[in-house]
Amino acid sequence: MVLAKPQTFMNRSGLAVSRFLDFFSMSHKDLLVIHDEIDLEFGIIKIKEKGGDGGHKGIRSIIDAVGSDDFIRLRMGIGRPGHKGDVSGFVLSSFTKEDRQSLDKIIQAAREAILTILCKGAKEGMNRYNKKNVLNSSE
C-alpha cells in the first residue's frame, strides 16, 4: 500500500494520480480515492466501487486522466451549505468549532473503512459503512 496526497488543486488531481499509478506500475483498479462529498450529510461515509463523477471536479479529473471510472472511492460527507449559491467557498472553508469536535470520530471510522477495503474488499466495506452516520453510531 502506498499513500499519496497530491499537491495539486483537487480539480486537477488527475495528472498527479495518473503519474502516481505509472510510477508504481499500478492499475486504476488498484486505486482508492478518499474525497469530500457535498451530497452526503456531515458524518456519513460511503464507499463506491466505480461510477461517474457526481459533479465532483476532482473525481472528473481523475477519470479523465486514468481513462476509467473503475476505481474505489471513499466519499466523506461534508453536507451542503445553508444557501443555494456557489458552494466553492463552503467546500474550501474551515470546519466549524462544532464540526472540528467530531473529526476524530469521523477520521477513525474512515480509517476502519479503509482497512476493511484493503483486507476484506470493497463490498464488505460497503456492507459495514455505507450511509451510516458515524457520529450517531455506538460502534
Per CATH, the class reads Alpha Beta
Helix/strand order = HEEHEHHHE
* Low-pLDDT residue spans: none
Helical coverage, percent range: 40-55%
* CATH fold category name: Rossmann fold
Written description of the protein model:
- The chain has helices at residues 13-23, 57-66, 88-92, 97-120, 122-129; strands at 32-37, 44-48, 72-77, 132-133.
- With 139 residues, the chain is of the alpha+beta class.
- The protein has a single domain (10-133), classed as Rossmann fold (3-Layer(aba) Sandwich), CATH 3.40.50.
- A four-stranded mixed sheet has the order 1-3-2-4.
- The radius of gyration is 15 Å and the shape is globular.
Could you outline the blueprint of secondary structure elements for this entry?
Layout (H helix, E strand, L loop, with lengths): L12 H11 L8 E6 L6 E5 L8 H10 L5 E6 L10 H5 L4 H24 L1 H8 L2 E2 L6
Name the features:
single chain, 139 residues, alpha+beta, Rossmann fold, 4-stranded mixed beta sheet, 5 helices, 4 strands, globular
Sum this structure up briefly.
This protein has 139 residues and is of the alpha+beta class. The protein contains 5 helices and 4 strands, in the order αββαβαααβ.
